[in-house]
C-alpha cells in the first residue's frame, strides 16, 4: 500500500534550492520514513522510496500503478523540487531515497557530475526524445512541461503573439511570473531567454518590470492569481496546470510566443546510494513503459518517449517554438543569471 511521506522545509531546502534551483509548482509534501543502512544486494527487498516533485496526482498514480504491477511497496515523498533537494541535502550522510524525480534538468546534471547518480540503461532508452535524457543513462526526462503565456480568458480574448507584447500599457500591473527562486522551470526559462537574447533580453525584463511585472511565488500561486483575476497574465507558466484548469472549467488558456520558449524535461534518476537498485530499475522501466507514459499524457504533461503521443487537447511538442539554448549553459550560468534577474525585478 502506497505510503505518503511528510517533508522537511527550512534552511536545508533553501541551501539546496540556491545550489541547484527549485520548482515550487506542486503540492506540499506528505509523510516519510527511512531505511537503515544495508550492504548493496542484487536481491529485491520488495521496497522502494521515491522522492518526487510531482505533480502530486500523477506522482501518486504512477506509484500506485507500479505497486499494483510489481508488488513492490512504495514510500512516496511528494513536494516541490526545492523541498526534495533540501531533504536530500539533509540526508546526505544517511541517504534514504532510491529514486528521485525533479521538475528541472540542471539539478539532475549536477547530481551526475558529483557522482551521486546510478547508471542504468532502461529498455526504453532508445525510444526517448532527443535531448530529454542523459546519453550515459544516468537520468531520463520521462515527462516534460512547456512554458508559455497563461492568461485569463474573461479579461482578454487572446495573448500577445510574443513576450514583448506584455509591454502594452493596458497590461500595466497585470503581469506575473513564477519566482525563479521557487520554480526551477521559471529559472530555466530566464536563463534560456538570456542565452538567446543577451542584452536585449535584459532590456525586456527591465521594461517589463517598469510595466509592473511581479513575482508571484511558485507556479501554483502565480496561476491562481490569473484565475482569480488579480493578474491577467503569467509569463513563463507551466502549461499542464493550465490544461488541467481548463478541464475543470476555469477561465484560463495558454499561448506559446513566436520567439520561443522552453520545454523542460522532468528527470528521474536512481541514486548511487540506493540499497534497492533492482526495485529502482523496475520503477524507471515502469514510468517509461506504455502504461507509465499514458499516465503522464493523461496529466497533460508531454511523454518522454517519441512513440507516445501527448494528450490530444494540448499543444504537441513539435508545434511549440523553442528558444535557442543548451542545458550545459543553464547548468553553468543559471545561478549568476538568477541573481541578476532578481536585482532587475525586485
Automatic annotation (TrEMBL):
Q: Give GO MF terms, alphabetically.
A: metal ion binding; thiamine binding; thiamine pyrophosphate binding
Entry keywords, A to Z: Iron, Metal-binding, Signal
List, as start-end ranges, the regions of compositional bias called Polar residues.
Answer: 43-52
- Residues bound to Fe cation: 240
Q: Which GO terms describe its cellular component?
A: outer membrane-bounded periplasmic space
Please give one Pfam family short name.
SBP_bac_6
What GO terms describe the biological role, i.e. biological process, of this protein?
thiamine transport
Q: Which InterPro entries match?
A: Ferric-bd (IPR026045)
PROSITE patterns according to UniProt: PROKAR_LIPOPROTEIN (PS51257)
Q: Segment Disordered: which positions?
A: 23-56
Under which name does UniProt file this protein?
Iron(III) transport system substrate-binding protein
Q: What is the scientific name of the source organism?
A: Salisediminibacterium halotolerans
Amino acid at each position: 500500500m502506497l505510503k505518503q511521506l511528510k517533508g522537511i522545509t527550512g534552511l536545508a531546502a533553501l541551501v539546496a534550492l540556491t545550489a541547484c534551483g527549485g520548482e515550487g509548482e506542486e503540492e506540499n509534501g506528505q509523510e516519510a520514513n527511512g531505511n537503515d543502512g544495508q550492504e548493496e544486494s542484487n536481491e529485491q527487498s520488495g521496497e522502494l522510496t521515491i522522492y518526487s516533485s510531482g505533480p502530486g496526482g500523477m506522482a501518486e498514480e504512477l506509484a500506485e500503478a507500479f505497486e499494483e504491477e510489481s508488488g513492490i511497496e512504495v514510500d512516496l515523498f511528494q513536494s516541490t523540487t526545492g523541498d526534495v533537494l533540501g531533504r536530500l541535502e539533509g540526508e546526505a550522510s544517511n541517504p534514504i531515497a532510491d529514486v528521485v524525480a525533479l521538475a528541472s534538468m540542471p539539478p539532475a546534471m549536477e547530481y551526475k557530475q558529483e557522482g551521486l547518480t546510478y547508471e542504468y540503461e532502461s529498455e526504453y532508452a532508445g525510444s526517448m526524445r532527443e535531448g530529454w535524457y542523459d546519453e550515459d543513462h544516468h537520468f531520463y526526462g520521462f515527462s516534460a512541461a512547456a512554458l508559455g503565456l497563461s492568461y485569463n480568458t474573461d479579461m482578454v480574448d487572446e495573448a500577445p503573439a510574443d513576450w514583448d507584447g506584455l509591454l502594452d500599457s493596458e497590461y500595466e500591473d497585470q503581469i506575473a511570473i513564477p519566482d525563479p527562486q521557487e520554480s526551477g522551470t521559471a529559472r530555466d526559462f530566464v536563463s534560456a531567454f538570456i542565452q538567446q537574447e543577451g542584452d536585449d533580453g535584459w532590456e525586456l525584463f527591465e521594461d517589463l518590470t517598469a510595466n509592473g511585472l511581479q513575482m508571484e511565488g511558485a507556479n501554483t500561486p502565480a496561476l491562481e492569481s490569473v484565475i482569480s483575476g488579480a493578474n491577467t497574465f503569467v509569463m513563463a507558466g507551466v502549461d499542464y496546470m493550465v490544461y488541467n484548469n481548463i478541464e475543470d472549467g476555469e477561465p484560463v488558456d495558454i499561448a506559446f510566443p513566436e520567439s520561443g520558449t522552453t520545454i523542460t524535461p522532468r528527470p528521474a534518476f536512481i541514486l548511487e546510494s540506493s540499497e534497492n537498485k533492482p526495485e529502482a530499475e523496475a520503477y524507471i522501466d515502469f514510468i517509461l513503459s506504455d502504461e507509465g507514459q499514458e499516465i503522464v499524457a493523461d496529466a497533460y504533461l508531454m511523454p518522454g518517449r517519441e512513440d507516445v503521443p501527448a494528450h490530444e487537447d494540448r499543444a504537441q511538442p513539435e508545434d511549440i517554438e523553442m528558444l535557442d539554448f543548451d542545458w550545459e549553459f543553464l547548468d553553468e550560468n543559471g545561478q549568476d543569471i538568477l541573481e541578476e534577474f532578481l536585482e532587475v525585478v525586485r
